[in-house]
Amino acid sequence: MQYKISALIFLKDQAGRFLMLKRAKAPNDGLWSPIGGKLEMPLGESPFECAIREAREETGIELENKDLHLFCMAAEKAYEGKGHWLMFLFECSKPLEALPAAIDEGEFAFYNRAEIDSLPIPETDRQGLWDIYDKYHDRFVALKVDCQPGKPLNFEIEGLVPARKSTHAKPQND
């Protein structure tokens, strides 16, 4: 099976609620998830370029690299038994001002973190993605997930970078 490479973007509104997309296409048709999509590999698109493009295409928001924090690289083995996914997860610091209009990929809604746990979401999201977000969105984690059908999902941390330091800290003199 070949790898597909994607970016997921965790966008929030000014109240801190997460933007979720009820997907109208595979994978995850009918399930709620953060926005995102596949890298344009023939163009040599980077994960940041993909996140910026997907956010613009799906929500209309204009982002720059500085608006995004890459907090996770997740390698999913045998997702739905159909392929491997290398996913780059980004947290966006620029809030959305309004709920985007529905698109051909699905419809949008804002949910607070507690509400997401009661939504129909992909099993990998329920068993690991949101836990990873909760624990590591302020740092960086490399993760592998064994998604082989007929086996329990297995999440393994391969690397962890400590939490980001405040950008408001005063420089120390040597």
UniProtKB/TrEMBL annotation:
GO terms for MF: hydrolase activity
Domain Nudix hydrolase: start-end pairs: 2-153
UniProt cross-references to CDD domains, sorted A to Z: NUDIX_MutT_Nudt1 (cd18886)
Cofactor (UniProt): Mg(2+)
A Pfam family: NUDIX
Keywords: Hydrolase
Domain of life: Bacteria
Protein's name in the database: NUDIX hydrolase
Species per Swiss-Prot/TrEMBL record: Pelagicoccus enzymogenes
